[in-house]
Amino acid sequence: MLSLAQRVLGLNGRELRRAFPIFAYLFLTMASSVASKAARDALFLDRYRAIDLPYVDIAIAVLVGFAASLYIWVGHRTNLRNLQVGSLVFFALNSLFFWSWAALASSESGTLFILIYIWVGVFSVLAPSQVWTLANYVLTTREAKRSFGFIGSGAILGWIVGGFVTRAGVSRFGTQNMLAFVSLALFTCAGIVVMIWRDRPDYVGNDTPASGNVRDRFPLWGAIRLIRESAYLKSIAALILIAAVTTTIAGWQFKAIAKEAVPGTDELAMFFGTFNMIAGLMSLLLQLVLTARVLRTVGVGQALFIVPTAMLMGSTGVLLLGTLVAAAALKASDQVLRYSIDKATVELLYLPVPASHTFRVKSFIDTVVYRFGDAGGGLVVLLFAAVLGWSAIQISVIVMGFVLMWMSAAYVARRQYIENLRESIHQHRVDAERASMPVMDRDTRSLITSRLKGTAKEIAYALSLFELAHDRKAHPAVRGLLHHEEPAIRQQAIRLLARAGDSSVKDQIEELVKDPDLGVRTEALIYLTEFDPTDPLQRIEALGEFEDFSIQAAIVAFLAKPGDTQNIEAAKLLLSRMVYEQGEKGRRARLEAARLMQILPDMFDREMRALVDDDDVEVAKTAIVAVGALKKRALIGDLIDRLAEPALNESVVASLSTFADRVVGTLRDYLNDESMRAEVRREIPKVLEAIGSAAAQAVLVESVLDRDVVLRYHTIAALNRLGQEHPERPTDRKLIESVLAAEIMGHYRSYQVLGTLGGALSDSANPIEHGLRESMEKETERIFRLLKILYPQYDLHSAYVGLQSAAPVVHDNAVEFMDSVLPPEVRQVIIPLFDREVSVGARIAAANRILGSKLGDREEAIEVMALSQDPWLRASSAYAMGELRLTRFAPTLDRWAEDPDPLLRATAIDAREKLRHAAAAAAGVDAL
């Protein structure tokens, strides 16, 4: 029976256990409200005219303000449980008092019935509001979205039962005795609150005051300040205010027309009770059939428009027909829908608001703002009905005008809801990626310049960043570092000034050729060779104490320099000796030769290629930087061949990117050539991203469907970042949508594999599941990057980070944000994959339904993994083939044993050995 209820309501056992007490709380509160309202309306209208109703509505609005201020003031000093229990007991005692007074007072006591009318008005605002405040405290966004439909049905059922009890109770006991029923129900609600609080989640504190740790001297002003400072809270307040004005006017129309059609007091009370019962039944039917489906399908934003649209149609009917049936239809459009779809929708708007703010703001909006709306509606009725003499039917024109304002407020609230969800998850976003810019922007240069005044370590770091930049300007502060106490900083400063072509410091560098540090002397000598016509050999003979590589570098620079002394052949000969010299001494010579390449004429391709191919990382890096600086197209292939080496990757990418669009065609050829090493192809998207041109982006789009999932991942990541940097560029949406659909289907297929292999191995932490999980994490990231390309206007990066959070509130806000911004056809397949409340079993069942087929057995699941281009998955499938002794995969393992991927190759060899041992053991058994 319980499982049937869970399926019908769409809730799991834990959610149902948490939601049911809140459902009961709301049920009793609303039943009490309906009974008390029916009684007070009948008692009041028996002694006063319908035109007098606006006066008491205005009085209620004023008193609600005082009540709300007192309520918030108490909330500063006690927790939410004590506050709600205390207020419920207070209202219950009030009800008993009025019941006793009504039993003893004269039937003509008009003052009593005015007080009852006002008291019911205050109670019916505060009591139901408390239920939703408590629900906001103990449920997360996603839990609330699933549970609020069921909880809201408590209000509807309360309307039904309240109407039924009113009808039956009035006919048997009289109207005023309904107050005793109200008192009993409220005492019961107090006990339910204690039970809900006892089972609250861990993140809801026990001793924290309801309003948090903030205490305002004037509680209402504190709430007003919060609303004034938040565009989102202002939109909620406006929505509630306009809705209250509209429904108050429509409610007066209904009562006025009903009074004319049903003259007797008891008959009128019975009519109101009957109407409430029928409206409640209709609302309950809609709640069970539509509310959860509407919220799940169209989301919170669109659901806000349902009630105003229905009321617009109802007002039109009253204006054209003017009958009690038309008035009842108008009231039903409010009452039937408001406590089914609309109430759950409006309450969901508060969930992204911090809990400490929710109490103060919601208490203020649901009482003061709501009643100000009632008062506003009352003033409108007084103006047009009492002063201008409009009939109840003619007032429909005013209602229609306010309905249009209601729709405008709903539009703003929907937009702010999404923005507030985004802000709530954005603060949890941790973005470790930093884009590399080919030329420093002003802010970056200012940051680095500030480091030039720091410690020696900071200065060295700043100078290295200047060296990595593609522009050749040197900051004036670099000149002041020529006499720094650290030799390495003096050497870097000389090199930067030489690269920048700054000859203004030649006299200072003349002094540095006598520096005690060999590296500084060498750098100074090379600088002077560039900017001074003096033969470097003369300086060397005069100064002495130079290493061979320093002398060689200076002479090569001098001989290669254009002019009368230029001798390229001699320069090549000396440079070749430096390039091919081995050992530690040779390493220093090769490194100096690589540095020298940036200032030499473009005539040393063979030597440059040898340096790029050097086994020493520093030598190769320096030569790679020189290739980029000199734009050596002949060496592009050599650079691409070294892309796969982690130590050189960054330098190669930066160097290749300096060629801009001139290298894009070559990169495209390499990218599309499947005979190329996979490790090299997988790094090309990084180069195209660094280039960042429209042509580079177009090449990335071409390869987005590549079979290699690692390459596809890097391609999608590059497209994602370029899309953010250049949102003005058009996107091939159909292609990206096709890739997204394929990735989503692949992710569902991974769940099928996970379900089929579950329990296949005794070890719960086996490498098969580990590899599959690794692959699925990459699938998830690819899916979100594709979503970001398709919907760049939404902060889906923050949503992705929020989904990884262990905090239930953050995770659920991220899911709700996605549910609110993604199109229905996308979110219906995306959300189940990432909502933690959807079990793995449910995802597997969804995969079977969406893909239209199931995986037959574990061998079929392993075959799916083997066909993947994901290295992790293939290695995991190889492990499974060996561990499960699946001999039919022996040919596959033989092929993989020769694969260039080291992980796959090692795993396949190990699995093959297991199959051979298994075969040998089986043969031994057969022989016995």
Account of the protein in words:
- By secondary structure, the protein is mostly helical.
- The two termini are 58 Å apart.
Major sheet details: none
Structural class computed from helices and strand pairing: mainly alpha
Outline type: elongated
Question: Helical proportion?
Answer: over 70%
Radius of gyration: 39 Å
* Count of DSSP-assigned helices: 43
Q: Catalogue the unreliable spans.
A: 430-448, 543-547
The overall strand count is: 0
Give the key terms:
single chain; about 950 residues; about 0% strand; 43 helices
What order do the helices and strands come in, and which of them pair?
Layout: H1 2-9, H2 13-47, H3 53-75, H4 80-104, H5 110-138, H6 141-173, H7 178-198, H8 219-229, H9 231-261, H10 265-297, H11 299-303, H12 306-321, H13 324-348, H14 355-387, H15 396-426, H16 442-451, H17 456-468, H18 487-499, H19 506-512, H20 518-531, H21 536-543, H22 548-560, H23 568-579, H24 583-596, H25 605-612, H26 617-630, H27 636-641, H28 646-657, H29 664-672, H30 678-681, H31 684-691, H32 694-702, H33 709-725, H34 733-757, H35 767-790, H36 796-803, H37 808-821, H38 824-834, H39 840-851, H40 858-867, H41 871-883, H42 890-896, H43 902-927
